[in-house]
Every structure is written in C-alpha cells, then in structure tokens.
Amino acid sequence: QVQLVESGGGLVQPGGSLRLSCTASGSISRIIIMRWYRQAPGNERECIATITNGGITDYKDSVKGRFTISRANAKNTVYLQMNSLKPEDTAVYYCNAGGLSEYWGQGTQVTVSS
Fold first, then answer.
1. Positive or negative CA dihedral for 22, 27, 32, 37?
2. Nearest to 69 by CA among 103, 101, 21, 111
C-alpha cells in the first residue's frame, strides 16, 4: 500500500503562485510514475502533470509554461509549482501514484480569485 498526503492549497489572487506538495509513504518502491490531477466543479478529473522515476515530465497544454512538476526523492515528495494562476485553475488538486496499482491522495483545494 502507498499513502499520499497533499498540502499547499489555498486562496490566491489571479497572477499569483502556489506550490503543492505530495508526500508518499508505505511501499513507495512500487511507484514508477507520479501525476497531479485536478477536478473543478462539474468537470471530469483531468491529468495536468506527470513525472516518471527517470525524471521525464509531461504537461497538459493548459498549464504548460506555468506549472512545473518536480520530485525530491530523498523526501519521497513530489511538488507542483503553479505560477501565473488563473481563475480557471480553481479546482481540487489530487496527487496520484502509479505502478502495479494506482493510489490517490485526499486532494487539496486551490481557489484563484480576486
């Protein structure tokens, strides 16, 4: 089993920045890829950023150039640096770990509003 705990969400003004963290514990050797998803009210959950164990990253077009996914292996933590935030980035953000199984965090709310 893998446990994921997110933190770092909150309220920010348009144009502002936030950094989300996701710390993994448990059978972390089973993880081969980490992802950040988000889900806005009335919308499906969407994958916005991915990082593999080899450090290869990928982004949804809507966040490319504004968001950066990174990992600190020594801390078993994955980050999502979010810059130039827009109101349409408002959503619950979820951390996801993939391997033989898939694991989810509890989510953290990000609200972008003036």
1. negative
2. 21
- 54 vs 3: CA distance, rounded Å: 21
Which is nearest to 17 in space by CA: 96, 103, 112?
112
pLDDT digits (tens, 9 = 90+) for 45-104: 999 999 998 899 999 999 999 999 999 888 789 999 999 999 999 999 999 999 888 999
Classified as helix, coil or strand, 89 is helix
Name the residue among 66, 1, 75, 74 with its Cα closest to residue 36: 66
Residue partners of 37: CB distance under 8 A and separation at least 6: 45, 46, 47, 48, 93, 94, 95, 96
Residue 37 host element (H or E): strand 33-39
Express the helix, strand and coil content of the chain in percent, nearest 5 each. Answer: 10, 55, 35
Q: Cβ(3)–Cβ(25) under 8 Å?
A: yes
Give residue 56's Cα distance to chain centre: 15
